[in-house]
Every structure is written in C-alpha cells, then in structure tokens.
Amino acid sequence: MDVVDVQEMRWFRSVADGTTVTETAATARITQPALSRALGRIEREVGTALFQRVGRVLRLTPAGQLFKTHVDAILERYDRGLHEVGALADPEAGMIPLAFLHTLGTWLVPPLISDFRDRYPRARFELKQHGETGLIEELLHGTADLVITSSDPGHPALRWQRLLVEPLRLAVPPDHRLARRRRVRLAEAADDTFILLRPGYALRATTEQLCHEAGFTPRIGFEGEEVETLRGLVTAGLGVSLLPAPQSGTAAAQPSASHLRVTDVDSTRDIGLCWLADRTLPPASENFRRHVIETAHRMLHQD
Fold first, then answer.
1. What is the pLDDT of residues 124-149, one digit of tens each?
2. Does a structural domain hold residue 1?
3. Domain containing 12 — which CATH number?
4. Where in the sequence is the domain holding 199, given as residue range(s)?
5. Are 92 and 117 in contact (CB under 8 A)?
6. C-alpha–C-alpha distance, residues 106 and 247, integer Å
C-alpha cells in the first residue's frame, strides 16, 4: 500500500488549485517526474483517477473534487494544530494570524501591533488584507485567528465586538463647487456622480443606505476595490465618494480631494474585531485580542 504524507497532500492541493505541475515542482524544489510520481501514489491510494488532462493543464475529476474537500480539511486541522501547539509551548513567541481591511493598514493596525510587540517582543504576525467578504472567509477557513473589519457580519459562527466608530467624509475634487466648504449635507451631492466600491463591500452598502436616508439614489460612475483608488479617482475629478478621512501621512500629493463633514445623516461606520465563537484562541492570539480591545479606545480617529 502506498503511504501518502502531508507534503504530498500539499502538492496535490497546489495542483488541484490550478498551479501547474511545473510551478508546483519548482516551488517544492523537486523534479516534475518526482511530483508526478507523488500524484500517482495518491491516486493509487484513493483507487481512482483524481486528475484529467485538458490540453496542457490538469483538471480535477469529480472524484478529485470530492477528495480535495477532505484534503483541505485535513491540512487545515494539521496546520491549526501546529500553530496551537507552538503557541501553547511558548505563548509569548507565538504566531498570530491577523487579517484586516485594507484601509486600516494605514493607521489602526500598525500601532496596535507595535504596542503589542513592546510587551511581547518575540510575538510574530501573519498579516493579510481583504475586503469584508475575504476577511470572513479567512476566519471560517481557519487561516486567521482574528480579523479587524467594519460592521458586524451577523454570522452565527462568529463573534464581533465594536472597537470604535469611524467618521465618513464626502470626498470631492479640489475644483468641485463644494470643495471650499467644511460641512455639507449629503443631499447636496444628489446630482453628482458617485465613485463606489464594488458590491459586496460593507462601505458600498453603507454609502447606498446613507444616500437613501438623504433622499436620493447615487448615480454610479465608477466602481473600485480599494478606498485609496477611489480617493485618487475623486482627486482626478471623476466624481465624489463617501470615504474615511485620510490619515496623517497618507494624503495624496497636491492637488488633493477635499473631505467634508456630513451633517444631515449619521455618516459613520463601525470598526470591530471578529473571531470564531466556538473556538478557544491560542494563547498568543488571545493576548492580542485582549490587547486590541483594551487599547482601541485610545486610537479613536480624531476629526
């Protein structure tokens, strides 16, 4: 009987995810024939073909697709076990898998990590940035212990705790008719073209809801995937957008968009910390969770 080891399962998953045999072999630092033999051992162990060749690319058979779900689960549990045992052995030097919204990487996340490492200098972080949907997937797939995101995802498997409330500003081009104002009613932008994040981002839903509360439906001219891209499009004169105010050191070079306080609707978004509800966090991640909750109030965005 062939014996399949963990490393071979990782190679299988890599090819199953669409990486070519050539690329997988190069990454693993083995020859292509050695990788092909390893995949063959897995197929003999399973007892059926897991791949079929389509042109020059390997594609999963139906049996391969089913088998991959179990391989993913095995590797997830194995990696989580390594992570948790390592953290238990030395909680002050553990690895903390953390994911967060793109926009929070410019102001909130760095001081949280810096302050924590002042107390635990041997702690290490594995950092990932996503939109809200990607953050939730990181938690549910076990690839992140904690995520810092916006509003409560409302998922039954997750716990979410508000950290702070971040103001949103109406960003307008430097030559816009409202650019010299400090305050504005959102309704005054009803006839403007809006630049929004793509559907699926919480900030997109928040913007549409606030516009509805202000009495209009935004006319969408452009959609993007990152807040700083939207800010750049506003600066270029392509429309207006509801955005977090730029943090110190992140504003674009002159000319730059004006960010106006909105007075007719509650133009804010929640920022919170999220983790799996039914899982005990490894010691290092639990230490960081407590640290974030204890210190976030000192990092409130200053208007």
1. 999 999 888 889 989 998 889 999 99
2. no
3. 1.10.10.10
4. 166-268
5. no
6. 7
